[in-house]
Amino acid sequence: MIDPQNRVRERLEACFIYLSYATPDIREDIGIQGLSQVWIDTPAWYLWVKGRPGAFMIETVESGCLEEGNIVADSGLMAVRYFPSPGEEVFRDFSPGERALRKSSLFDITGTPRFEGVKRVRAGLYHIANLECLFGNRSQWMSLILDAPLLLTQPPGEFGATPAADTTEATERAIPAYALSLALYDTLVKMFTYFLRRTPAAHGDAVIEDGRERISCSFFSRTDCSGIERFLSSYTGVHMDSSLRKNVKPEWKKIALMEHRSHLTSLCGCKSCG
């Protein structure tokens, strides 16, 4: 029997592989410039998005099944990491140790860790946000939830996993984590808008933790939204109401109506897609 982690992985991969064969102009409009599976012991991917010269990594850190009344959903909680390009302004906001590692030979020309460097970054380094993917009730709905500090000042590891014993990090860190991770989140919402051929039924944001963190939530639905809205509002603290169509961006509508055209060459770098 397939467990929640693999069900979430299958649904994400279906979207990612589909987008990898979209024509270049469609990819440009959506903002996805590249994606590749990370070959580790848990579902993970690298993504390159328009407007950010560095690379993102999303890695599943927890999975399970959520149940509330008649709402049932597979959940995949992912750590969002960003490997900044040494030439971009935000690079200086990372810790001295993160900057030194990023400029070392443990990173390759793509801006992502070589195989031997992946273990180092998974020890809490470059972790700027959390992304939760929910897939519910016989694939009738799904949600993407971003949770990130507005300004991340904790030493590497405190926001996510505990650093490895040999990690020595100064605390000079002032990363605009929410704004940085929003580029990835917006691209993922657009990717699923194109893949599902529909805009999100609702989208909302909320500031929590005395104004220190921000949550964004979008959900797509093929069925009545009221029960899902109540569940997500309670679960995230974000007011979700599909009647408030003002939160559905015009660019999402454009993407949902795009003609679906395939390109012969995939942008995916994984072994399956060549």
UniProtKB/TrEMBL annotation:
Domain of life the protein comes from: Bacteria
Protein name in the entry: Uncharacterized protein
